[in-house]
Amino acid sequence: MDESTADAVDAIAAQWRRERPDLDLAAMAVFGRLGRLLNVATARIESVFTAHGLQRGEFDVLAALRRSGAPFELNPSVLADTLMLSRAGMTGRIDRLEAAGLVRRIADRVDRRAVRVALTEEGRELVDRVVVAHTENETAMLSVLDRDDQVALDRIARKLLGEWESGPDPAPGDGGTRSSR
């Protein structure tokens, strides 16, 4: 590391190296940077939604409906499952979007007792505008990396997610090795 690339994580790691030279701090530095990246990226991503009068969760609902294809409607339970939300949390989002005229509740064609959530024309037009701004923003955020680095980052992130989401958690204090639970 040279002085021109040093960051706050390097300063923290240097303090730990001074106090605990016995620790391997490589993973701590990676996770420190990942955490900082997540915070910065989240703020930049959410600024796009805010500029369009949406919260991220509201965009997620509109986007799920839009990408479901015509007629752009889903059962509220399917929406909740897709977005990993409680039914109550989904109801609140749908209520806000319905009040804004972006979605409407309609009777299910098969089971008239059930409802579906459908994008209104205004909702479809809004999500189509926002998704363009959103993807342009994310592309700009990654533009500091060349294409090969972007592909490598995606490959590494996919590998970590695949491992972490499917395997058992390492036991605390086992040095990062997998537990045999």
From TrEMBL:
- Tell me which domain of life the UniProt entry assigns to the organism this sequence originates from: Bacteria
| Matches recorded under PANTHER family | TRANSCRIPTIONAL REGULATOR, MARR (PTHR42756), TRANSCRIPTIONAL REPRESSOR OF EMRAB OPERON (PTHR42756:SF1)
Q: Record's InterPro entries?
A: HTH_MarR-typ, WH-like_DNA-bd_sf, WH_DNA-bd_sf
Q: Name one GO molecular function term.
A: DNA-binding transcription factor activity
What is the protein name for this chain? MarR family transcriptional regulator
Where does the HTH marR-type domain start and stop, copy by copy?
A: 31-162
Q: Which SMART domains match?
A: HTH_MARR
Tell me which UniProt keywords the record has, alphabetically: DNA-binding, Transcription, Transcription regulation
Lineage of the organism: Bacteria, Bacillati, Actinomycetota, Actinomycetes, Mycobacteriales
Short name of one Pfam family: MarR_2
